[in-house]
Amino acid sequence: MSKLIITAAITGAVHIPTMSPHLPLTPDQIVEDAVKAYEAGAAIAHIHVRVPENGMPTADPNIFFEVHQKIKKRCNMILLPTTGGGANQTIEEKLVPIRKLKPEMCSFDPAPFNLGLFQIVQRFDKFKYDWEKMYLEMVKMGTFAPSFNDDLQYAKTMLECETKPEFEMYELGHIGYVTWLMDEGLVKLPPHLQFVFGPMVGWMTPSVKHLVMMYEEAVDRIGAGKFTWSVAAAGRHQIPLAATAMAMGAQNVRVGMEDSLYAGKGKLATCSADQVKMVVEIAKQMSLEPATPDETRAILGLKGIGKVAF
User: Which residues fall in a coiled-coil region (predicted)?
Assistant: First the structure.
C-alpha cells in the first residue's frame, strides 16, 4: 500500500495537567488539537475528554458529544472515542458515549492489564490539581480487568451501533480475545488491531522484537492479510516504533499527546500536530502518503460519517 493512516490521540487519560502546559483539557482545546492534527495529515482522532475545570478524565457523554460535534463541523476526520476512559470509570459508564454518538470507530480493551501510573507520582513535588496524585496512585489497588461478559457487552454494543472496534492489544495472549469474539460472530471482519507498548509496569516493553512478535502472533491466530493493524507506543518510543511499523507494512500508526508529550528529545510538543508532522515526513521518505479520512474509510470498511449520531 502507498497510503498510511495516521491517528492522532489527542489527550488520553494517563498524562496529568502538571506534566505539560500544552496538554488539551477543555472541549475547545481538544477540538483545536484534533483539527490541527487533521491539517497536518491525520485521518483519525482518538478522543478522550476531561472535566474542563480541572482536567480530570471523564466519560461525560455531553462533553463527548460537544467535542465530536465541533470537530465534525470543521473537518471530516474519523472520530474514534475511547471506551478505555479513566481508571475510575465503570464498564457501563464507558459505553454510554458509544451508544450516544454511534461513531464510525471506537477503542476496545478486551483483556486485563495493569496500568502502572503510580510511578509518575515520584517525578513531582507539587501538583497543579488536587485530584492528580490520588488518581495516579489509585491504580495500585486494582487491575484494568474487563470480564468475558464485559467483552460480550462491548462487542454487541458496537455491532448494534455499526461501530468498528479498534482492539487494543497489550500482550501476545490478548489476540486470543479477538479470535474468541470472532468465533462468537461478534466482530465484523476484518478486525483492526492496535499493538500498544509502553514503559509502565504491566505493559509490554517497547521494542522491535516485541512488535514483530505481536504481528506474527496475529498472523498465526487470524491469518496473513485477514486483519488490519496499527501501533501505539508511549513516550520516547512513539516515533521509532511508528517508523518500524511503517517499514513492516502497517496500515495505521498512532501518535499524539495521549502517548507522548514530546516532539523530539527534550522538546515538549505544543500539540499533537507536531508529532503528526514528524510521522508524515518519515512516511514520505518511505514513499508513503497520509491517507485522507475518506481513503481511510475505504481501507478499514467504515460505515461513513453520514451514519454517526453527532
Answer: none
